[in-house]
Amino acid sequence: MLDSGCMAAARRIVLVTDVEYRKAEHVFQSEPALHCERAPDAESDLAATIRDTRASHVVVGARPYAGALYEALPKGGVIARFGVGHDGIDKTRATTAGLLCTNTPGVLNQSVAEHAMLLVGAAARTLVAMSASMARQAWDPVVGAELQGKTLAIIGCGGIGRAVARIASAGYGMQVVGCCRPDAPPPAALPHFGEVTNDIAAAVRRADFVSLHMSASRDNLHWLNRERLALLGERTWLINTARGSLVDEAALFAALVEGRLAGAALDVFAHEPYIPVEKSGDLRSLPNVIMTPHVASNTVEANHRMAQRALQNIALAESGAFDRMDLLNPDVLT
Q1: Residue 69 pLDDT > 90, yes or no?
Q2: In this model, does residue 5 exceed pLDDT 50?
Q3: For the domain with range 109-291, which CATH number is right: 2.60.370.10, 3.90.1150.10, 3.40.50.720, 2.60.120.200?
Q4: Catalytic residue among 272, 278, 301, 324, which?
Q5: How far apart are the first and last CA of the chain?
Q6: 243 an active-site residue?
Q7: Beta partners for 36?
């Protein structure tokens, strides 16, 4: 079992992968209790830097880590995810190595929710196509649609999903339907949701927009497959600011080309930077697709809060206050 004595013996050096360091450099530089240094994010290079600096903890982004990282860190070290999704961290391997894994829940809800609603609005007003038309010096007005009264189905009613519901309902006057896990009874009521169900077919039946806010896991790989895509109507737009692995991109491309779906607005992809899963199925070639490069949580404010929360988790580990950490692998404590 890990204890505070084990943590006290560790050096207070924290390596922060390059992209994450640049997102919140001021926070990492001004941390008084921990010495934060920029480090490469490629696993082999990061592991080598850990050994060279004798760092005890790391702050990492979404990149997957499968081997060398867990061998390089000392027992009791922290792998602090700069963000919420933690599918890139092998919790089983970390637990075996005696490493604590954390993330930063809650602090990016507003940023992701705002981006999801930005994509909804861009889809409703054909914003991207009209902007491109204007850049070509063309004047081609397109009739848009109001969001008031439209139905938004939110798949996943956690913190981000609830933030989206608040903006959509209170801000735009949309009708919001929530869909929670099928293996759990839906809550009796949630603020800003007109209805909550655990039946995906019922949730999307009348939806003008379907927004995904599920976590990535092995069970959720390609959750939105051909069969579930068929539940969405021809007028429905798919919005995904969660994880690219949730969507079968080949099935999505086919649905868009065949007119079985109105469009898709995507911030996350199966491969990042984006690479088509099939050469003949490039989503960038379709006029009814809006794409942004995984930036929903990438705001000044959210980056600041994520950096603070990641360092807070490391400080709590140093002091032995494990029960106050955003611990992803509590089995490591036993």
Answers
A1: yes
A2: no
A3: 3.40.50.720
A4: 272
A5: 5
A6: yes
A7: 14
Catalytic status, residue 294: yes
Tokens of 165: 């519901």
Peptide bond into 64 cis (omega under 30): no
From the list 243, 249, 305, 318, the catalytic residue is: 243
- Within the chain, which residue ranges are assigned CATH 3.40.50.720? 4-107+299-333, 109-291
Question: Would you state the structure tokens that stand for residue 243, as one six-digit string?
Answer: 């994880």
The pLDDT tens digits of the residues spanning 115-125 come to 999 999 999 99
Secondary structure (H, E, C), 24-38: CHHHHHHCCCCEEEE
Q: What CATH class does 4-107+299-333 carry?
A: alpha beta
CB atoms within 10 A of CB 285: 11
* 129 burial level (CB within 10 Å; 0-12, 13-18, 19+): middle
Report, in this order, helix, strand and coil percent for the chain, each rounded to 5.
40, 15, 45
Rg of the chain on CA atoms, in Å: 21
pTM: 0.92
Q: What is the pLDDT of residues 189-217, one digit of tens each?
A: 899 999 999 999 999 999 999 999 999 88
Catalytic residue of the set 294, 305, 309, 318: 294
